[in-house]
Every structure is written in structure tokens, then in C-alpha cells.
Specification:
Blueprint (H helix, E strand, L loop, with lengths): L1 H18 E14 L23 H21 L4 E7 L2 H8 L9 E5 L9 E7 L3 E9 L14 E8 L4 E8 L7 H25 L4 E7 L7 H6 L2 E2 L10 E3 L2 H5 L5 E3 L2 E3 L2 E5 L1 H4 L5 E3 L5 E2 L20 E2 L2 E2 L9 E8 L1
């Protein structure tokens, strides 16, 4: 009897593998991925050879290699299939990144739209061309009611078609920082969250079953009001009625984990959020339960000194460290049904 049951289970497993494909979706804040060339239309003065940081070709090449090392290590050394990014200067730095020898086998193509940010940092997305086809790219501006002339990062909208012909919408974000104080700056993150919420509502008005993946550095945690109340990204998969979203990172936050460190304390600023059809597996794109992960390796952290255990960054102030980023990548797994 046991042999019969095992045989049936084996057949089921083979059937499921044959009819579902697993993909990795990730997000990674690049922390100032700038080239060395002066752009007279942008405020990139901090990252030039003549600046205090003395940002030069050697440092830029090292930065590209370090970021490629991290990205290529995600997903068990295979790199993610889709990677949302923030803090990139332009399309050229993305092309230099995916041209690095560590990423050439990943078959990435970059999506970037020049944005209005005052620091010249934009959102972007890389996708594996052997797994996805690009359908649509669009940006949505974030306007502050109290200061409409102030410029911040647009929300990047990318629609990709997977091999199973399902079209997935990716929204890549970098919400306004907490500069000036968490409470004082909070209305700006509310404004960004409202833009994301409005995009989702517009998509739902046409099709309640749209598969949507929202990712970014939100400069807020899963339990902050911009995420939980304004965007309506919930931590409970049973609370997804009426267009509510599911925050895959909520459980990690509850466990005291974080993708970013400030004065040694972790915070879950980098998050991946999914629509109810993905969370509940009612369509052809299914979230692999509890697959949300912060990618951390010992070589990504300071190994000695008073900052031991903190992320090894490219710079500490104006001191060059030659590291990676002050943020850790986050990722989830999805299955695509045939």
C-alpha cells in the first residue's frame, strides 16, 4: 500500500513540475549607481572625478562588478528572472551592469525611463529575455500637494508577458526619504502610496484578476500607514478582500528582520507586494508561500571594527570602502502554471 501511495505522489509531483515553472522576483537598491560623466541637466556633481568622493573609472568599474556579484548570487547563483532596482543614474550604467561577465548568462534586458528626481537617481527593471517579453512601459509622477515644484522618483510601470502567456504588471518604486523626520516627511510617502493605489484600482476596474507585483524601497516599514492604510498592503493573506494587497515582507518584519540597517538596527524598507490573485493562486501566477527572503551573505557585511555586522557600502560618507550597498536585496518565488 505504501509503495502505491508513494508511486501516486511521485506521479503527481512529476505532473506538477511539468505544468508549472518557478521564477524568482527580486528588488535591490543599488545605492548610487552613477557613471563618472557630468550630465549638465542633472545634479550628479557628487559622483564625478572632481568631487570629494573622487569618483573615477576604477571605482565605477569596481561598483559594477560588486553589484553584479550580488545579483548573480541571488536565486541559488542563477540571478533573479526579474529584478526591480532604484538609485540608478541612467540606461548606460544598467547596460554596463548587465554586460558584466558575472551577468552575461542571465540574458537580462534593462528597462529605464529618465526621471525628474533632483538627485538624478531613477527606478529601473531588468528582465530575463528567455523568460519574458516586454509589453508596455510607462511612468507615473508623484506630486506633493504642499510643494508641487519638488521632484521625486516616478513610479515605473512595466508589463511583461511570461512564457505561459500571462501578463504581469510590475510597479517599481522608491518612496521619498525620511529626511527631516519620520513624521514630518510622512505625507510625502502617503502621496507616493496613493499613486500606486490608484494604478492598482485602475487595473482592477478593467480586470479584477490582474496579476500585479509591487516592489521598491518604500522608506517605510510594512506596518506604517503609507503601506498598510494608504496602499492597503496587508500582512494577512485572509485580509485580501476589496482589492487589498498582500505584503510578502510582513512576516519578516514581525520576526525582527530587516533589509536596511540604521545605527545597527534593522528595518524592513525593501518590500515586495502582490495582488490577491497572485497571493491566493486563483490565476496562472502563484506566490510560493513564505518564500520571501532577504539575501544576505557574510561578504556583504563589515567584518571588523566598530561597524562590524553592518552592510559593507561603497562609501561611508566620503570615505571609499569599495563595498556594495546599504540595502540588502529581497526576493520571492512565483510559480507559473501552464
Amino acid at each position: 500500500m505504501k509503495k502505491t501511495v508513494l508511486f501516486v505522489l511521485s506521479l503527481f509531483a512529476c505532473f506538477y513540475v511539468a505544468h508549472a515553472q518557478q521564477i524568482c522576483i527580486a528588488f535591490y537598491n543599488q545605492e548610487n549607481l552613477f557613471d563618472t560623466i557630468n550630465d549638465p541637466l542633472k545634479n550628479d556633481d557628487e559622483f564625478l572625478p572632481t568631487a570629494k568622493k573622487a569618483w573615477n573609472t576604477q571605482k565605477y568599474t569596481t561598483k559594477i562588478s560588486q553589484m553584479a556579484k550580488v545579483i548573480s548570487s541571488i536565486n541559488n547563483g542563477q540571478a533573479p528572472d526579474v529584478l526591480g532596482m532604484c538609485e540608478v543614474e541612467n540606461l548606460q550604467v544598467l547596460n554596463d551592469l548587465i554586460g558584466d561577465k558575472q551577468l552575461k548568462s542571465s540574458k537580462f534586458k534593462a528597462v529605464h525611463v529618465e526621471g525628474p528626481d533632483e538627485r538624478s537617481i531613477d527606478n529601473a527593471l531588468l528582465y530575463n529575455t528567455s523568460q519574458f517579453k516586454l509589453i508596455k512601459v510607462q511612468t507615473y509622477p508623484v506630486i506633493f500637494a504642499d510643494k508641487p515644484e519638488s521632484k521625486t522618483r516616478d513610479v515605473l510601470f512595466v508589463e511583461l508577458e511570461a512564457k505561459n502567456k500571462t501578463r504581469i504588471v510590475f510597479l517599481v518604486n522608491h518612496f521619498p526619504s525620511r529626511l527631516g523626520g519620520e513624521k514630518e516627511s510622512e505625507p510625502r510617502r502617503w502621496a507616493a502610496a496613493k499613486v500606486v493605489r490608484n494604478i492598482c484600482d485602475s487595473l482592477y476596474a478593467l480586470n479584477l484578476n490582474r496579476e500585479i507585483i509591487i516592489m521598491g524601497d518604500f522608506n517605510d516599514e510594512p506596518n506604517n500607514s503609507s503601506m498598510d492604510s494608504v496602499m492597503r498592503a496587508k500582512g494577512n493573506e485572509y485580509d485580501l478582500n476589496g482589492g487589498n494587497l498582500f505584503n510578502c515582507m510582513y512576516e519578516l518584519k514581525q520576526n525582527g528582520e530587516g533589509s536596511h540597517y540604521y545605527r545597527g538596527q534593522p528595518s524592513m524598507l525593501d518590500q515586495i507586494i502582490i495582488s490577491a490573485p497572485v497571493a491566493n493562486c486563483t490565476g496562472k501566477v502563484c506566490y510560493v508561500k513564505s518564500s520571501a527572503t532577504i539575501f544576505k551573505q557574510p561578504w556583504m557585511f563589515e567584518q571588523e571594527g566598530k561597524f562590524k555586522g553592518s552592510p559593507l557600502r561603497t562609501y561611508a560618507g566620503d570615505k571609499y570602502l569599495g563595498g556594495f550597498s546599504d540595502h540588502m536585496p529581497v526576493f520571492i518565488y512565483l510559480t507559473l502554471k501552464k
